Amino acid sequence: MMWLSPSEGEALHLSLSVAARSVALSLPVAILLAWVLTRRRFLGHTLLDAFVHLPLVLPPVVVGYLLLVLFGTRGPIGSWLERVLGVELIFTRNGAALATAVMSFPLMVRAMRLSLENVDRGLEEAARTLGAGAIDRFATITLPLMLPGVLAGAITAFSAALGEFGAVITFVSNIPGETRTLPLALYSALQTPGGDTAAARLAFISFALGLSGLVLSEWFARRVRRLLGR
Amino acid sequence: MLSVTVKKRRGSFSLDAHFELPTPGVVALFGRSGCGKSTLVNAIAGLLDADSGRVALDDSVLLDTEQRLCIPPEHRRIGYVFQNARLFPHMSVAANLKYGERRAPSQRFVGLDTVAGLLDLGPLMGRRTHQLSGGERQRVAIGRALLSQPRLLLLDEPLAALDAARRDEVLPYLENLRDQLAIPMVYVSHDFDEVLRLATHVVLMESGKTIAQGGVGEMSLNRGLRSIIGADAVGAIVDGTVLGTDPASGLMRVKLGHGELRVEAANFAVGAKLRVQLLARDLIVATQAPQHLSVRNILTGVITTVASDDTDSDLVAIDIGGTTIMARVTKAATRDLSLEPGLPAWALVKAVSLRGHSFAAPPATSSARRGA
Fold first, then answer.
1. Any idea which architecture A15-180 has in CATH?
2. What pTM did the predictor assign?
3. Residue-level pLDDT at B82
4. Which residue of A123, A227, A229 is in closest CB contact with B86?
5. A198, B98, B113, B345: which has the fewest Cβ within 10 Å?
C-alpha cells in the first residue's frame, strides 16, 4: 500500500483489526441471542429484546460511558477481567473492539433473526424424527439454513465497526497506533490546522473500503444462496 | 402390536383416539381433512405433547403419561414421511438419505443399496433436492425415513400434494415396501383408493375421535365409511387368490369365498393374492339362479343383513363363504323379493366393474430383524 502514508496505513490496519475482533467477539453471542429471541418464549423476553436493541437508540457517548463504568479499571467487570484474565480493555484495541461490538450488536442480531424466522421448523422436526438431538439439529440444519443471515449480520456489523466513533472515543480515547481507527484519525485531522487534505484522503479510504465491502457481501450472499439451492 | 391411546385438547379441537395394529401391518388412519389424523400421527411421533395417553410398540413403551414417561422423538426410532417431503435443501439427495442412517443404532435391518433398489433412487443420488419432481421428492423422503432404521413408519398423506399421475408413480413403491420389508406402517389418508391399495387395517376417524377400526375387508362394510367416501364408493373390499387365466376371455380367474370371479387385471402369477373392490352399486341381487345372462360373474351365498342405506335404498350383505359382499338395492326390490337374512342369494357382478390390485400379505414378524 505504497500510496498510503504510514499513519494512514496504521489507521486502516487498526480499523480492520478492531472490526475483525469485534465481529469475532459478537458473532457467537449474537447467534445464541437471535436463536433465543426467535425460538423461545419466556418471562422477560420483551425486556431482553429491548436491551439488545438499546445501542441503536442510545447516543454512542452514553454506551461509551456505560462501558467505562462497567469495564474501566475500577469497574466491576473491568477489574475482574484484569485481575483474573489479565485482559486490559481501557485504552486498548481490544477495548475498541468491545465498544464497536456492543454498538453493532443489534444490527447483527436483527439480520440473523430475519433469516432464522425463514428457516422451516418442519425441517428441524424432520431431523428430529431422524434421530438428531438439539445441538445436532442446530449444527446440521438450523445454522446452515440461517447462514445467509449470519453472513449478512457479520458483514453489516463489520462495516458498522469500521465506522464506529462515539463509543470508541469515549471508552478507549484516541491513541495513535492503538485506538485511532479511520473515523478517529479523520476527526483528528479535522482538528489539526492544515489537515484538510489528510481528512479528504482518509474520507476517500473509508469510501473505498465501504464500497468494496458492499460488493463483496453481495457476491458472497449470491454464492451462499446458490449453495442452499435457492 | 402397536397400541395407541392419545388425548389432546387444543382450543376448541379435541383429539380422543385409540387404536391397535397387529405388527407388521399397514393401518390407514382414514377420515376427512381436519379430523385430527395428522395430530394423532404427530403424537405418536412425539412431535406433539399429548395431554394424556399411552403409545407402545411391541414391548417398548414410548409414551405413558401415567408413568410420566415420554421418550423424545429423536429416540423413538419412528420414521416419519411428511406430506411435503421436508428434504433438507442444503444437502444433496445422497446426504439427505444418509442423514438418518448415520444417526441410527448400529443394528441395521435395511441398507442404502436395498432402499435405493426398492425406491429406484439410484438415478437421483447425485442431484440437489430442488431438481427433483414432487414424486421423486417423496421417494427420497421415504428412503430417508427407512434408512434411519425405524421400528415404525408414519406416513402423513405422502401423496396428497401430488397430482394423479405422480401419485400412481409413487404408489407401487409403497406397495413394494409393504410387501418386502416387515415394517409396520401408519398411513394417513383421505383418499380411499390409497387405503384400498395399501392398508391391511383401517381406523376411521371423525372430528378427533376414532370411531371404528378393523381389517380392511371388515371396515369396507362399516356404515361410518359412507358419510366420508360417499354412497357410490361404498363396497366390499375382498382379498382373493388368482387361479389362472381364462383362455377364452383373457380374464383372470380369482377365487373369492367359495365362488370365483373373472377380473380384468394385469397378469398375476397363479396363487397371487389379489384385492378387489365390489362396489355396492355394481351388484345385482337375484333370489333364484339366474339364466341366459351376459353377466359372467355370479357369486352365490346367503344374505346376512339387510340394512337401510338411505330413503329409497337398502344395503344387502351376502356371505359368499366366509367372505361378505354388499349390494345396494332399492327398497322396492327388497319388498318385492322379500330379501331377508338367511335367504340364499345370487350376486351378479359385471367383470368390467372390478379392479385388481396385487396384494401380498406382509411377511411374518421377525422382531430380531427390527432390533430390540
1. Orthogonal Bundle (1.10)
2. 0.84
3. 94
4. A123
5. B113
